[in-house]
Specification:
The chain is an alpha+beta fold. The protein contains 11 helices and 17 strands.
Length: about 475
């Protein structure tokens, strides 16, 4: 809900805007009692956002043309212009009017100010003391543009006249943009209809003096009033060579805005509706008075970012859940086929012939075969060394060779050989056998024994036997 504060010379009145509906709040007179009551009333509305709408006489307008410049230079020029124009009041702003159509095409801006700051300071001071969230300080002149009939919005020049609680508001538009506005106050109980032709003529003369109108130019004047007031205005407002009056039914504006039928003959509800919708654009409040609103914007931005992150997390989680459900559906769809394959493989295994040997016996046989293959290499190496030893003694011939892997002794080898030393000379038989024994020991045999003859080698015997033992670690 937004709180709209309508300020006129005599009082400040609160209005509430919620979901497109407008309701009236309390009125505070412009005196010390009213200030005190307003301060107490704010205590109960600390969480609301406030927009202050000023409808006062003390307004000033000045048209300026700025040369082309960068953003920083443009801001600096506007700040200097406002400082010179609104000297003595902090309530001012610059309203862009577009670029000139001819010449150097400079930018036209309208400097606007509320020249009597005293009538605003007391109310703003109370808002600051209550730490109220002030959205903007606006004027009726800014918001009247929304009240123009659609058929007249493209008029090159137009004077729109309407009645507000503060008096007769006259606003001049040039090329559809605000150029000048003026408020004529009324005395208590004074009828605005007889007064209106005089005020319109006075405004026309001022615009002509400011060269906003030419002397012979016809100025369209749109009169925004109720149906009954328009009938009375037709009797006092007659067209002439420079003025053309156009009646606009106020009820049409209320219907277009979605507001209930007016109970009073003024356009204030329409202005308040526009004030509730105008949180951006030029406004008159200094930035120090809008600090609370800036904090409110930061909180909303932080909340929006947090919500976006939360929504992103929800979307990510939902996507993961969707993928999980899709994978589960795919697995469930494939499960019948997988079960059928398992059943078929189980049937094929059951149909195979069973081995007559128990698995433990097969495993032991395979292990023994692997060990024998490993020891075969070791046996070959031992036999190769023994052959090298025999090869060095060609006068002794090998007639028989046998070997045995000793059971329970690891890879230990027992080598037995029958030898014939007949080819040696009789005197050298003993030396030849001894040399052979030494060669076998050099090849790694740990024990070498002569088995035949039983005690020693007989020099007369041609045949004899040897036994050599090769321990595993020697190989």
């Amino acid at each position: 809900m937004s709180v709209l504060l309508y300020l006129e010379a005599e009082s400040l009145r609160a209005w509430f805007w919620r979901r497109g509906r407008l309701s009236a709040g309390p009125r505070f007179p412009a005196n010390e009692t009213g200030q005190h009551d307003f301060s107490a009333w704010l205590e109960g509305h600390r969480d609301e956002r406030f927009t202050l709408l000023a409808d006062v006489v003390d307004e000033a307008f000045q048209l300026e043309t700025l040369p082309r410049a960068s953003r920083a230079d443009r801001r600096a020029m506007i700040a200097r212009k406002l400082e010179q124009f609104a000297e003595g009041t902090p309530f001012c702003c610059a309203i862009g009017l577009g670029r000139e159509r001819q010449g150097e095409r400079g930018e036209r801006i309208l400097l606007a100010a509320l020249s009597r700051s005293a009538q605003l300071e007391d109310w703003l001071r109370t808002l600051r003391a209550a730490e109220a969230c002030l959205v903007a300080l606006l004027t009726s002149a800014q918001l009247v543009a929304a009240l123009r009939p659609r058929a007249l919005r493209d008029a090159p020049r137009l004077l729109l006249v309407c009645l507000t609680p503060a008096g007769i508001r006259q606003t001049f538009f040039e090329q559809g943009r605000l150029r000048f506005s003026r408020l004529a106050t009324l005395a208590n109980g004074e009828d605005w209809i007889p007064r209106l032709p005089y005020e319109v003529r006075k405004t026309q003369q001022y615009l002509a003096a400011q060269h906003a109108l030419t002397r012979r130019e016809v100025l369209p004047v749109a009169l925004l009033a109720t149906h009954s007031d328009l009938q009375a205005l037709n009797l006092v407002c007659a067209d002439d060579e420079t003025l053309h009056y156009i009646g606009v039914d106020l009820a049409e504006g209320f219907r277009a805005a979605g507001l209930p039928a007016a109970t009073e003959a003024n356009a204030l509800p329409l202005l308040l509706r526009e004030a509730a919708r105008s949180s951006r654009g030029p406004q008159f409040a200094p930035e120090t008075d809008r600090a609370g609103f800036r904090e409110h914007q930061l909180r909303r931005a932080a909340l929006a970012i947090g919500f976006a992150v939360f929504a992103g997390g929800l979307a990510f989680t939902a996507n993961n859940l969707n993928d999980t459900e899709r994978l589960a559906d795919a697995a469930e769809a494939q499960e019948p086929g997988t079960r059928a394959l398992e059943q078929r493989l189980a049937g094929e295994l059951a149909s195979l012939d069973r081995s007559p040997f128990p698995p433990a016996a097969l495993q032991a046989a395979l292990s023994s075969l692997a060990r024998n293959e490993a020891r075969t290499g070791e046996l070959a190496a031992s036999l190769l060394r023994a052959s090298h030893a025999l090869d060095r003694h060609r006068d002794i011939s090998l007639e028989k060779l046998s070997w045995t892997l000793l059971p329970g002794r690891g890879s230990e080898l027992l080598l037995s050989a029958d030898l014939d030393a007949a080819a040696s000379r009789d005197a050298g038989k003993l030396t030849a056998v001894e040399d052979l024994i030494a060669s076998l020991r050099e090849s790694g045999a740990s024990e070498v024994d002569v088995l035949k003859p039983a005690s020693s080698v007989d020099s007369t015997a041609d045949r004899f036997s040897l036994r050599a033992r090769y321990p595993g670690e020697a190989r």
